[in-house]
Structure formats: structure tokens, C-alpha cells
Amino acid sequence: MTMTDTELAARFALAKRLAAEAGAMALDYFNRRDTLVIETKRDLQDVVSIADRNVETFLRDRVAEVYPEDGFLGEEFGFGEGTSGFTWVVDPIDGTAPFVNGMPTWCVSVAIMHDGEPVVGVIHAPCSNELFAAARGFGATLDGESLHLDPSRNLQNAMTGIGCNSYVTPERVGAIIAGLMQRGGNFIRNGSGALMLAYVAAGRLVGYYEPHMRAWDCMAGFCLVREAGGQTLDFPGTGEAFLQGHPVLAANQSCYEDLLDLHMRNL
Ligand code: IPD
Ligand code: CA
Ligand code: CA
Q1: How far apart are CA 34 and CA 28, in angstroms?
Q2: Nearest residue to 209 via CA among 231, 236, 242
Q3: According to the model, what pLDDT value does residue 47 have?
Q4: Each residue of 70-85: pLDDT tens digit?
């Protein structure tokens, strides 16, 4: 199915508006987080609350009002296929662990897929009041300012984000961090993979690597990094594989091959 610039621009504008509104809603929950009941999912580190569910429901309902024929995949309520060729991919709160523990590094992540590729990526970080936004062919911006990666930044003179969850053994995580440090790099993990991907697009981190993530964690960040001039590892964008977890790598071109090597040596 072909996509016109008009269709893309209209959805991009809606994604920015909805991410900002969803962020305001999530921030309201954050400011009264002591009243939230925290539940666990896969393990004690994997948490969720009514804030995640209600923010996703808000996004689902608003998208369905305007584009009832678009598909929608969200972390909390799963996948509904569409007929328009566009699929919204949403993590209502990425960084729920920092969120429930009172830290500011969480965000709302909204992507739109077309032909298996993310064509819109919007990440809103309410605590810093920052909106990272990109659409294919339209470039990437942070609060309206264009983002372009600096080729002089590399593993050695900048920081790399590393993520992990219980799908990956502690030994493997340790080996990845050791390998990065052996290459003269250093790592940071702030609890939100989506936000760290936005930081790669903004040049704050030179790369991000996590061995196992889901589409809602990374599709918006991938669009942002690509439009800022960076490179991303292939992530299946259609079919059953799209709903599974895969390795996620996004980086400044200056160090993409180094991080790919780190990934290949630690499978
Ligand atoms: C998690 C965060 C975390 C990453 C995990 C994700 P959630 O998402 O992005 O940084 O390491 O793999 O599952 O649970 O906060 O939405
Ligand atoms: Ca997530
Ligand atoms: Ca989430």
C-alpha cells in the first residue's frame, strides 16, 4: 500500500499532539504515585499500574476516533490489526520502574508503522518537558530544533546506553558491559530504553544496545535515530515476529559497527 506525504504529515501531527496529552496525563499520575497500586507482571522488577493502562486506553481511543482503520499495538492491551496500512505502536509509559520509584526518566513512546518500517516516532519525556519527534523524510527534532548526529562522537569519547531485563542472563549482561569497557567505552542505564533511544537521536548518547526488547519499546526511537542520521539493527516489522522480542541496537554511524560486533560476540 502506498503512503502519501499528506497521510503521513496528518498522522505525525496527531502523534505529537497525543504524545503531549498522554504525557500530561501520565505526569498527573506520577505526581500522586503514592496512591497507585503497583502490580507485577513477569517478575518483581516488571511493574505496572493503572497509569500505564489508562494512558494506553486514552491513546487507543483517540487514534480510533480519527483513524478507525489503522492498526494498534500497545504494551498493555495487545494488537488489533488495521486495514489502512498504518499501525500505531505505543508504550504508554516506558520506564515504569523509574516512574513508580519516583525518578524522572520515563516517557510516552508513540510510533507509526507503514510497510514494516517506523515512519513516525514521537517520545515525550514529561519530567523534563521534552518532545522528541521524527517522521520519515521530515527529519528529527527536539522541541522543534533539528537533530543531526556528530560523526566525531564515538564509543570512546561518549556514553553508550545499555539495557537489560530478565530475558537475558546476568552473565550475558556482564559480558556485554565488559566488552564495551574493553573497547574504551562506558555505559549508562536510566530504566527507560525508549528514552535512551531518544537520547541517541539527540546526541546525548552515542548508541543504545539491549539484547531483548519489544516493538513498543523501540520503534519510535528507531525512527528518531534514523532521521537524525544514525543506524539501526533490523527489527522485524510485520507478522508474528513483529510481536516477539528481538535485539535492539541504534547508534551514531561512527560506532554502529563496533556495537554490532559487541552484539555478535555476545549472542
Ligand atoms: C522497559 C524499559 C527498560 C528496558 C526493558 C523494557 P517498561 O520497559 O524500557 O529500560 O530495559 O527491556 O521492558 O517495562 O518500563 O515499559
Ligand atoms: Ca517499555
Ligand atoms: Ca511500558
Answers
A1: 12
A2: 231
A3: 66
A4: 999 999 999 999 999 9
What backbone torsions phi and psi does residue 220 show, to the nearest 5 degrees? -65, -45
The answer, yes or no, to whether any atom of ligand 1 lies below 6 A from the CB of 165, is yes
Buried b (16+ CB within 10 A) or exposed e, 173-202: beebbebbeebebeeebbbbbbbbbbbbbb
Residue spans of the chain under pLDDT 50: none
Rounded distance from Cα 111 to ligand 2 centre (Å): 13
Domains by residue range for the chain, with CATH:
5-146 (3.30.540.10), 159-265 (3.40.190.80)
Q: Is 210 in the pocket of ligand 1 (CB under 6 A)?
A: yes
Torsion angle (degrees, nearest 10) of CA 237, 208, 225, 222: 20
Question: How many other CB atoms are found less than 10 A from the CB of residue 144?
Answer: 7
